[in-house]
Design a protein that fits this description.
8-stranded mixed sheet, 7-stranded mixed sheet, 15 helices, 24 strands, about 20% strand, extended
C-alpha cells in the first residue's frame, strides 16, 4: 500500500509505503548511488510482487518536485534510518559531487500505513520547498495519472493500493479507483500460456440490446494468429512469449450504454477520452507509452489504422473496433517473459520478436471480441443469397418483355389515350434495347473482373512465394560469383561448370514462375468453355510444386475420375491458386509433417451438375469463431516480424466473389484428417 499526502500552506508532499524498507547498507551502497539499483539482484518484494526501478534513477525525480527530501526507512527487525538531502546544494558551480553532504540520523520510528495491520517495514519520503504551488487542478491531474499507474482491474491490484490525501478543500481524497469499469458492454478476460489461448467474454447484464450473456473457448496459439517470415522454419515454430493475462473492456460510445446508470453519455465519453487504449503492465506497474492517447506509440496495436482501412459497422462481419472504444490491460511479468525488455531509452519495450508476438496475441483477442459484438446485430452468420448481376439482368429483361406483352394485349383503350399508350409501348421497347446494351457492357465488365481476379490471385501468390523466389535468385547470384572467381583463378573449370549449371537451374525456376504468371491471364481463359478439370489442376500444382517442396511441403492430388466441365478456366485457376497459397501459409506453422491434399469431386447444385475443388492442409486449422470471417475482404490473421499484418485479406474474398458470380457455394472445415483446414468450392459444371 502507498499513501500520498499533500498539504497547503508552505506545502509538503509525503509518499509512504509498507514495503520491504531498506537497511543502512542498502541506503549507502544502493539508494545514494545514482544509476545503481539493487533491484537487479533482489527481484521480489516481501509480498511477492516483482520490483521495478532497476535503472536506479527514479530518486532524482524528487528534485523536480521540491528542494528538500527527507527519506525515512526501516527494515523489519532493524533500527529506522533517516536521510536528508538538499538538492539545491548540488546546483553550485565548481563544486565536486563528493563535497555535498548528505545527513544521516536514526529516528525513533517511521509512520507507516497500517490500514491492513501493523506495518513492520517500509519507506517514507517527505518533500518540502516545493517548486510549485499545488492546487485542486494539479491534484485532479495527479489522481487521473495514479488511476492508470496501476491496472484498473482487480486481477492486477492484489496488495497494491494507492491512497491520496490532502487538506485542500475540494481536492480528491481516498483510495484511487478507476471509474466506469462495470459499465462496459463487453468484458473479456483471457490468458495465454505460451501455447494455448483461453478466453471468456461477458456481456453486461442490463444491456438493452440483449444478446448472448457469455461466451468462452480455448484456441491453440497458431489458430489465433498465423506467423510468417522467420516463422517459416521449424526451429521457430513455437512462440517466444511466456504467460500473458488480458482484460479488455469494450464501450460502443452510444446512449443506450449508459441507460440505467448514474452517469451521462458525455461523462462516459470524457472517461474514454482519458482512459481508452490498451495499456501494458509489467509486474503490475504501468509500462509507458502504450495506451497513451497523446503518444505516437500510444496506439501500439494500430487499431486506428485498422479501423480506417475497413470502417464497416457492427452489422458487418468485418467490423473493427476503434481505439477509442477499448480500455484494456495486458499483464506480463519479467520472470515469465524475460525477452520483453526495457528499451535503452526506458521508453517502452524493445521491439523484438517477443513484443511482436505479444501484439499479435492481443490483436487476436480483439478479433474475437469483434466477432462477439457482431453477433448482437445478426441472428444468423449465414451469408445472404445475392443474385448474380447477369441473373438480375435476365430477370429485369423478362419483366420488361412481360410488361410490353401485357400493354400490347390491351385493346380497350380510349381514343384520346391511344397515342400516349402507343408511346408508352415504344418507350418500353426502347428501354429493352438499352437493357440489351447494358447487358453487353456488363459482359465486358464481367470479363474485366475475371482478369482482375486472375491478376490479383497471381499477385497474392507472388507475395506469398516471394521468399522462395528470392532464395532462387540468391542462388543464381552466388553460383555465378563462384564460377567467375574460379574462371579468373583458372583453378578449376569443373567447379565453374558445376556452379554455372546450378545457376541455370535456379534461373529456370524464376523464369518458370514468370511463365506461370503470364499463362494465368491468357485471353482464352476469360470465356466459358469446356476444359479437362484434372489436367488444369495438375498443371497448376506442378508449377507450384518447387516452391512448396522448398518449404518441405508435400502436395498430393487425390485420385478422381476425369471431369469435363464448361466454365471459366481463369476463375478455376484463381480459386485453386488462392486455396493453395492459403494452405502453404498454414503448413509453414506445422511442426511435424507438412502436407497439402487437392481433391476433385462431382456434385449436384440446385438440380444441376456441379464440380467441387477441395484443398486440405496439415496446418493448425481455423478457429470456429473465425470460420465465417475468413471469407471477408481485408480480414487476415497472417502477421510477420514487423508491426503490421502481412496478409492482404483478399485471397479468400476473391474466391467468395467467384462463388457469388457463378452461383456456387463454399465451405471450410477445421480439424480434418490432416489435422488442419479443408476449403471446398462448388460451381456449376455447365
Amino acid at each position: 500500500m502507498i499513501e500520498i499526502t499533500t498539504t497547503s500552506g508552505p506545502g509538503r508532499i509525503r509518499v509512504v509505503d509498507n514495503g520491504s524498507g531498506m537497511s543502512a547498507e542498502e541506503v549507502e551502497r544502493s539508494w545514494l548511488r545514482i544509476g545503481f539499483s539493487g533491484k537487479t539482484a533482489n527481484k521480489k518484494t516481501k509480498g511477492g510482487r516483482r520490483v521495478t526501478g532497476e535503472k536506479g534513477v527514479g530518486r532524482l525525480s524528487a528534485d523536480r518536485l521540491g528542494s528538500n527530501l527527507r527519506m525515512r526507512t526501516v527494515r523489519e527487525g532493524e533500527r529506522p534510518l533517516e536521510v536528508r538531502v538538499c538538492w539545491d546544494d548540488f546546483d553550485v558551480d565548481d563544486r565536486a559531487l563528493e563535497e555535498v553532504s548528505v545527513e544521516f540520523d536514526e529516528p525513533s520510528a517511521v509512520d507507516l500505513p497500517s490500514r491492513s495491520g501493523p506495518a513492520l517495514s517500509g519507506t517514507e519520503l517527505t518533500i518540502t520547498g516545493l517548486r510549485q504551488v499545488w492546487g485542486i487542478a494539479d491534484l485532479d491531474a495527479l489522481e487521473r495519472e495514479l488511476a492508470i499507474l496501476v491496472p484498473p482491474f482487480e486481477e492486477a491490484r492484489t496488495d497494491f493500493e494507492i491512497e491520496l490525501q490532502s487538506d485542500i478543500p475540494g481536492a480528491p481524497n481516498g483510495t484511487v479507483t478507476p471509474l466506469f469499469l462495470h459499465s462496459a458492454l463487453l468484458d473479456m478476460k483471457a490468458s495465454f500460456d505460451g501455447a494455448e489461448f483461453e478466453w471468456a467474454i461477458r456481456r453486461r447484464e442490463d444491456d438493452p440490446e440483449g444478446g448472448q450473456r457469455e461466451a468462452s473457448g480455448k484456441l491453440p496459439w497458431d489458430q489465433l494468429i498465423q506467423r510468417i517470415g522467420r516463422w517459416r522454419s521449424r526451429e521457430h515454430a513455437k512462440p517466444s512469449l511466456g504467460r500473458v493475462a488480458l482484460r479488455l473492456l469494450f464501450y460502443p460510445r452510444r446512449q443506450s450504454l449508459v441507460a440505467g446508470t448514474s452517469f451521462s453519455l458525455s461523462e462516459l465519453r470524457e472517461f474514454l477520452d482519458s482512459n481508452a487504449g490498451v495499456r501494458i503492465y509489467r509486474d503490475n506497474i504501468r509500462v509507458r507509452p502504450y495506451g497513451d492517447p497523446g503518444s505516437s506509440e500510444g496506439d501500439w496495436l494500430r487499431l486506428g489504422d485498422r479501423k480506417a482501412r475497413d470502417p464497416a459497422g457492427p452489422s458487418r462481419l468485418d467490423f473493427k473496433v476503434s481505439p477509442t472504444q477499448i480500455v484494456g490491460a495486458i499483464l506480463i511479468g519479467r520472470d515469465q517473459n524475460p525477452d520483453l525488455r526495457d528499451s535503452a531509452s526506458r521508453e517502452g519495450l524493445v521491439q523484438n520478436d517477443a513484443f511482436s508476438l505479444l501484439r499479435d496475441v492481443v490483436l487476436g483477442a480483439i478479433t474475437l471480441l469483434e466477432v462477439e459484438y457482431h453477433k448482437t446485430f445478426s441472428t444468423s452468420n449465414q451469408r445472404a443469397t445475392v443474385l448474380r448481376p447477369s441473373e438480375q439482368m435476365r430477370r429485369l429483361r423478362g419483366d420488361l418483355d412481360s410488361l410490353r406483352d401485357e400493354l400490347t394485349s390491351i385493346s380497350a383503350v380510349p381514343m384520346k389515350e391511344k397515342v400516349r399508350f402507343a408511346e408508352a409501348i415504344d418507350e418500353v421497347a426502347f428501354v429493352g434495347v438499352r437493357l440489351e446494351e447494358a447487358s453487353a457492357a456488363l459482359k465486358d465488365l464481367v470479363s474485366q473482373t475475371t482478369v482482375f481476379r486472375g491478376l490479383a490471385s497471381v499477385g497474392i501468390a507472388a507475395a506469398v512465394f516471394a521468399h522462395e523466389t528470392q532464395a532462387a535468385i540468391d542462388q543464381v547470384t552466388g553460383s555465378l560469383q563462384v564460377a567467375r572467381a574460379s574462371l579468373e583463378e583458372r583453378s578449376s573449370h569443373d567447379l565453374a561448370k558445376r556452379e554455372i549449371g546450378k545457376a541455370i537451374k535456379y534461373a529456370s525456376q524464376v523464369a518458370a514462375w514468370g511463365a506461370f504468371a503470364l499463362a494465368r491471364v491468357r485471353r482464352d481463359k476469360r470465356t466459358r468453355r469446356k476444359l479437362d478439370l484434372r489436367t488444369l489442376v495438375e498443371s497448376i500444382v506442378e508449377d507450384l510444386r518447387p516452391a512448396l517442396e522448398a518449404s518441405e511441403i508435400r502436395v498430393d492430388i487425390l485420385p478422381s475420375e476425369n471431369l469435363i466441365v464448361r466454365t471459366f478456366a481463369m476463375d478455376v485457376e484463381s480459386i485453386l491458386l488462392n486455396l493453395l497459397t492459403n494452405a502453404f501459409t498454414a503448413c509453414q506453422q506445422a511442426e511435424g509433417r507438412r502436407v497439402i491434399e487437392v481433391a476433385l469431386e462431382k456434385g449436384a447444385l440446385g438440380g444441376r451438375e456441379s464440380f467441387r475443388v477441395c484443398v486440405a492442409d496439415s496446418g493448425p486449422g481455423v478457429a470456429l469463431d473465425l470460420l465465417d470471417r475468413v471469407w471477408d475482404p481485408l480480414f487476415s490473421t497472417k502477421v510477420g516480424n514487423r508491426k503490421r499484418p502481412t496478409g492482404t485479406g483478399l485471397g479468400l474474398s476473391i474466391v467468395q466473389s467467384i462463388v457469388d458470380d457463378l452461383g456456387g457455394r463454399r465451405s471450410v472445415d477445421s480439424q480434418t484428417n490432416l489435422g488442419g483446414a479443408r476449403f471446398c468450392v462448388e460451381l456449376p459444371a455447365f
